[in-house]
Amino acid sequence: MDSDIKNQILKLVEEIAPTDDLEREHIDNTIQWIKSGAELFRIQKPDIPPKHLVSYFIIVDPKENKILLTDHIKAQLWLPAGGHAEPNEHPKTTVEREVVEELNTQAEFLYDGIFFLTQAATVGLTAGHTDVSLWYVLKGDSNTPLQYDLGEFNGYKWFTPEEILDTPIEKLDPHLHRFVNKWIKYSDASSKHLEKLCHDTLIASAGASTRLAGSKLSDEEISKSFEQK
Predict the structure, then answer these.
(1) What percent of the chain shows pLDDT beyond 90?
(2) What's the sign of the alpha-carbon dihedral 139, 145, 151, 153?
(3) Which of 45, 103, 47 is nearest to 72 (CA)?
(4) Is 80 exceeded by the pLDDT of residue 151?
(5) Can you tell me the distance from the alpha carbon of 3 to that of 69, in angstroms, rounded to the nearest whole number?
(6) Which helix H or strand E contains 65, and what residues bound it?
């Protein structure tokens, strides 16, 4: 395993702002796992080594406030799209590759880093190993049809956050409710942050010029927004 890519992944994981105690536990465990020198990538299907990296990508339509999930054939659950990182592949590159292979579209990142991290034992037709899942968030359009991989999915559907939270967790990834709650907190904090920036810009416009930084929060601001909820 390439030491440079391992260090890049370690840095990405260390930068994640946890939303709750369970995510903090998963992050800490993942950091220890990476530092242990264990193989991070799946080198043989379906489960060698029995713990390995997966890149999930949640596609969000921010205008319609909808989230795309796929009806996964092997897992027999509604899941985000995604796939296993190839040996020595950057997890963001995995997303860029998988979104083309699985949904025939291009990756437009709505959030630059890893937004969420989970560890979960697999179920369904490939049960028995542990996926360390790095969740990325992409921007999509719920009004544009997708050409999905018929070998991977029975279909796909756009859900509102409320519809996902109302769906029994047994039909979903076991951590999907937690992801949605984290995304709601982040979206709410980003909106308030943008409103404040716009307000401050209007106040300052009569004096020195002010640059509108955009709605993206720093890691410190994200952490504070989760702590306040």
Answers:
(1) 73
(2) positive
(3) 103
(4) yes
(5) 34
(6) none
In degrees and rounded to multiples of 5, residue 32 shows phi and psi of: -65, -40
132 and 204 inside one domain: no
Residue type, 195: E
- Other beta carbons less than 10 A from residue 141's beta carbon: 16
Token readout for 9 is: 């992944």
Q: What are phi and psi of 82, to 5 degrees?
A: 155, -175
Distance CA 10, CA 14 (A): 6
Residue 180 domain-assigned? no
Give a yes or no: residue 44 inside a domain: yes
Could you read off the pLDDT of 100-129 as tens digits, one per residue? 999 999 999 999 899 999 999 887 666 678
Question: How many independent structural domains does the chain possess?
Answer: 2
Nearest-angstrom CA–CA distance, 22 and 8? 23
Closest CA to 115 of 189, 197, 170: 189
Residue 223 belongs to domain spanning: 186-228
pTM: 0.84
Looking at the chain, the number of H-run helices and the number of E-run strands are 6, 7
| CA atoms of 19 and 115, how far apart (whole Å) | 10
